[in-house]
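Renewal narrative, Specific Aim 1. Our central claim is that a sequence can be written position by position from structural information alone. The example that follows is taken directly from our test logs and has not been curated for this report. It begins with the structure tokens describing the chain, in the order in which they were read.
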């Protein structure tokens, strides 16, 4: 059998804030087309670890490999150039612009008008946006609607479409379903499955174990900055993951109390 190679590998990552070790010698891999859930209680180090991967923070120690080569990710642009896109909770969309303008935000397509001046090529951006939404099975009636008039789930889908349009190989999502209603949560989970089928690798942070068990292939659990467990979905249970998150010692103490 051909050995699969990780798309991303982080090795012995350490990130300190003053005297606090937020991430302590964490190593993990993500394979192409794999959904990895990053789990842990508040303050476990999840957001800090993904910010190291997405170039927001530079690690104090450790190495990062992408597509088999060691990379130095010094800033968010370095990550984006590699194909690592991160969807934060605020989504970084422009509320007053429409859907297709957001997909092309900062990367607008221009055309020459009368062979003289450069103007925005609205038709091209509209058509391209429609194609990417269709490819991902996302339903938004008009791509001329402003972001502020869309539902939470639709906004999420626009942010994800933008990443995929610009060739994300690894999509990182911090709590993608946290602010959504049940129907919308289901759509985001469907979208995650569609992305996986299309070969996109995903790291998802979520507190909702029910969601995680529906989409994740593998789970990595952090506690107080350290990796305390890693499980394939089919070989674990929500109970086991919960005890890893809160710490088996605590469960023992509770029993004794
Ligand atoms: N910018 C920062 N400055 C100082 N401490 C931070 C900073 N960001 C996070 N921390 C601390 O690092 C630890 C890990 O935080 P974080 O990565 O946000 O955890 P999680 O996302 O798992 O809730 C926490 O103790 C947090 O208070
Ligand atoms: Mg966090």
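The sequence written for that structure reads:
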């Amino acid at each position: 059998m051909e050995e699969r190679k990780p798309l991303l590998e982080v090795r012995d990552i350490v990130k300190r804030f003053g005297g606090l070790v937020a991430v302590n010698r964490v190593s993990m891999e993500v394979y192409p087309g794999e959904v990895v859930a990053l789990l842990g209680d508040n303050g476990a180090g999840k957001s800090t670890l993904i910010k190291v991967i997405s170039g927001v923070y530079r690690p104090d120690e450790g190495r990062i490999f992408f597509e088999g080569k060691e990379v130095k990710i010094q800033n968010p642009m370095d990550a984006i150039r590699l194909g690592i896109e991160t969807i934060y909770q605020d989504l970084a969309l422009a509320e007053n612009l429409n859907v297709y303008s957001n997909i092309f935000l900062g990367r607008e397509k221009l055309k020459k008008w009368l062979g003289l001046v450069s103007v925005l090529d609205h038709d091209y951006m509209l058509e391209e946006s429609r194609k990417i939404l269709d490819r991902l099975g996302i339903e938004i009636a008009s791509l001329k609607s402003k972001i502020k008039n869309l539902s939470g789930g639709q906004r999420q889908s626009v942010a994800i479409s933008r990443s995929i349009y610009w060739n994300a190989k690894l999509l990182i999502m911090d709590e993608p379903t946290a602010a959504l209603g049940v129907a919308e949560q289901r759509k985001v989970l469907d979208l995650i499955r569609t992305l996986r089928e299309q070969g996109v690798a995903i790291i998802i942070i979520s507190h909702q174990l029910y969601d995680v068990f529906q989409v994740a292939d593998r789970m990595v659990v952090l506690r107080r900055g350290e990796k305390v467990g890693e499980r394939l979905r089919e070989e674990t249970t929500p109970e086991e993951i919960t005890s890893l998150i809160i710490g088996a010692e605590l469960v023992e103490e509770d029993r004794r109390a």
